[in-house]
Amino acid sequence: MTTTVRRLGPEASAASQRLGHEAFGVPASTTGPPAEPRSLDLPGWHWWGVTEGDRLLAQAADREFDGWFGGRVLPVAGIAGVTVAAEARGRGVLGPVLLALLEGARERGAVVSTMFPSAPGIYRRTGYESIAGVRVVDVPSASLAGLRPGGEVTLRRAEPVDAERVRRLYDAWAAGVDGALTRRGVSFTTTDEELVGGPTGVTLAEAPDGRLLGYASWLRGRGDGSGPELVVDDLLATEVDAYAALLGMLGSFASVASTVRLRTTADDLVRVLLGSLAWTTVQDELYMLKVLDVEAAFTGAACSPALTAALGFHLSGDVLPGLDGAYAVTASGGLVHCERAVVTGDRTLSPRGLALLVTGARPCRDLRALGLLVGGDRAEDATWDALVAGRVRGVLDHF
Ligand SMILES: CC(C)(COP(=O)(O)OP(=O)(O)OC[C@H]1O[C@@H](n2cnc3c(N)ncnc32)[C@H](O)[C@@H]1OP(=O)(O)O)[C@@H](O)C(=O)NCCC(=O)NCCS
After folding, report:
1. Which residues form the pocket of ligand 1, taking CB atoms under 6 Å from any ligand atom?
2. pLDDT tens across 163-186, in order?
3. Residue pLDDT, tens place only, 12-23
4. Within this chain, do residues 282 and 303 fall inside the same structural domain, yes or no?
5. Whose CA is nearest to atom 30 of ligand 1?
6. What InterPro entries does the record point to (predicted)?
7. Is 275 in the same domain as 310?
């Protein structure tokens, strides 16, 4: 029987939910009636699948996000729910469904695609590479208790009226972090009340003039020793005093909660502020990226205003039709520009090399060692690295 790759609509809801449960786990059984199949036409979700007759063999969703890269926002296709039916694994149905999904995402204007893989090896052939991560860590509360701000910082509990200021503080943090989602748009629908009322508390750190310098969004555990005692989903600040005040506040729970569980970027500033080595990873997830539109992925990114460069490279081996080819990249006036062009030289990037290079995740030296960059003038490698110098990567929103 022949297989078909297609967009999935509401008619596939029940089969899609069954496939998802098989792979990722069935919800705990209840005595009530079976849950309604999840809807496949939720805003911001685009489901793709492979069918054989009336059987669903594979599925994957493209989720609409926006993400910060190089100081500006790019449309992102976030991959979720990737599943191949147990009996169809190894039959080669994953590649076609991912390709159809990525072509659809490209048509709707996505410039990069990202995901949290269950295993990175699944997605390398499609051109994804790890550029950042989310790390959940346990820190003894006592190690935070002594942290104090050097200057004056006031802590107070957020009210719904503060929600937009909290979002703007997040924006200010995220704007400097390659990979961070904007938390705005169709896929982020949290109301003001949910933002400050969902957690046990959102604590604001304010300057004497009322400016918001940081916040911590925290959830108290059960207090009976089962599960984490104090979970902090966001702890973000724009100044060190706000970090110290918020961490010190969390440490003040030491007599009743011995551990604080922090969600961090893999390379979080909080680590630099701690005086103790105690920092235990409890969950470590990689964030992978693939470029869907080479010109848009480079063009408009900020670079050093002191850098003037005219460079070129070839992309080779991409699964997306038409993406391979020669590209000219220039830097001037603090901005990068990229367009298709005839370029001299044989500097050639693989899709995975491009993902690492465009986000500054790895220098050219590493790309060459990994075989993801070949040819070209090695003396030019430093200029390519300078194009993305100073980038920091991170993401806090799991999907
Ligand atoms: C992961 C899954 C979608 C792969 O489907 P599949 O039909 O077995 O995939 P393929 O045989 O086409 O393999 C694709 C690639 O993934 C690799 N791969 C598959 N499972 C892997 C694993 N668990 N760890 C590392 N690599 C894996 C294969 O080696 C292959 O690599 P290649 O492209 O270099 O040859 C399927 O096993 C599945 O549904 N698993 C359960 C749900 C899941 O983990 N989904 C992924 C969520 S991010």
Report:
1. 23, 82-84, 89-90, 92, 94, 117-119, 121-122, 125
2. 999 999 999 999 999 999 999 999
3. 999 999 999 999
4. no
5. 122
6. Acetyltransf_17, Acetyltransferase_Eis, Acyl_CoA_acyltransferase, GNAT_dom, SCP2_sterol-bd_dom_sf
7. no
